[in-house]
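Quick check before the chapter quiz. The format below is the same one you will see on the exam, so make sure you can read both the input and the output lines.
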Amino acid sequence: MFEQIPQKPPYNIDPSGTKQVRDYHHMLELFNVIIKSAPEWNEVSYGVGFVGFPINAILDWPMATPSGHAAFLHEKVNAQLYK
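Here is the expected output.
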């Protein structure tokens, strides 16, 4: 699913200018961070209208790929996310 995300704008960065997640190791590292801490408010994110839960920012582009769509419909994947 990460390989299916285009390497060009707007897919290469999020609205706040942060690089996009490009592999599952990075995704799991980010999950670990957001689970342990509350989201921080900042002017940059507010200025671009970036509102939402941190997990949405991590999964934004991967979920929009054909394989990401299939992965997040999979019963076992969802069971792990509910834990």
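If your answer matched, good. The chain is about 55% helix and 0% strand.
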